[in-house]
Amino acid sequence: MTRTKRPLTVIDIQQRIEAEYPNLSPGMQKFSRFVLKEPSRIALLPIRQVSELAGVSTSTVVRFINLLGFQGYQGFRDVYRVGLSLTGPSRYGVHTKRMIGSGNKDENGDFWSRTTGNLVNHLVDTHKSIASEELKRISALLLGARRVGVVGTSGVFPAAFYLRYVLSLILEDVRLFEGRFSTFDEDLVSFNRDDIVFIISFDPYAADAVQIAQYCAQHSIPVVALTDSSVSPVALKAKRKIIVPTASTNFYQTLVPTFSVFEGLLSNLVAELGKEAVNRVSAKFKRKEELGMYWKKPSRH
């Protein structure tokens, strides 16, 4: 990273990290990922705690902020303190911490309210952080593609399965890359630059998802990445990327923001196609009904 004029906003810092990430040392890359994923901790915690949480030395943090153009950690931290109230994703760590509380059941142990409150905050942050124009651009890519491949393994497979289902109601050729018995290579062999591969992957990133992103980059196959960091290994190989929060009040990652993005994409696709979308969906549901895929109430004789 070349030292230049210091960034003035959280977004400036994020964009700078994304642009320079491949050129950073491993230690600085590790801290960059922490900064992008845990902006609220930057605003709230002193340098020693931040370095411990990020798993890097304090000197690495100092070198990082110096390269950004800051004279010290306090100036860097102040940008996040101001930005915390202005940017969407930068608040989700704070929301989660507040919802979890101390974990003591005797301390307002209404876990249902905590869970739903956390999800509502995530949806608000997701709405603020993703520009509607970006969803329109991604929708245009999907509509213009010869075929679409959807990738999502392990815990995000349900999301991939759902996305493939809803896209197939509107688009002609949508394929789910299941990867059973290591068949990803066979799934990809017929894809080229006229197609789109939509990859869903969150930390810890599935090796299959990363390998597919790398393969697509090598063969000029456009990738849309839905992930949790702008410098995740799938985001770095993507033509377009959507960043969503995944922190939950439990041990697993939430997929609620992910599904909200699907709703937004579907709305854009329907709006773009207009009456043609209605015709396609109606025709496919009629075909499903003819095949006996839906239960019918028995008629009385």
UniProtKB/TrEMBL annotation:
Coiled coil: none
Superkingdom classification of source: Bacteria
InterPro entries, per database record: Homeodomain-like_sf, HTH_RpiR, RpiR-like, RpiR-like_SIS, SIS_dom, SIS_dom_sf, WH-like_DNA-bd_sf
Keyword Thylakoid part of the UniProt annotation: no
Gene3D superfamilies the UniProt entry points to: Glucose-6-phosphate isomerase like protein, domain 1, Winged helix-like DNA-binding domain superfamily/Winged helix DNA-binding domain
GO molecular function: carbohydrate derivative binding; DNA binding; DNA-binding transcription factor activity
GO biological process: glycolytic process
The HTH rpiR-type domain, residue ranges: 11-87
Keywords: DNA-binding, Glycolysis, Transcription, Transcription regulation
CDD domains, sorted: SIS_RpiR
Protein known as: HTH rpiR-type domain-containing protein
Species for this entry: Pollutimonas thiosulfatoxidans
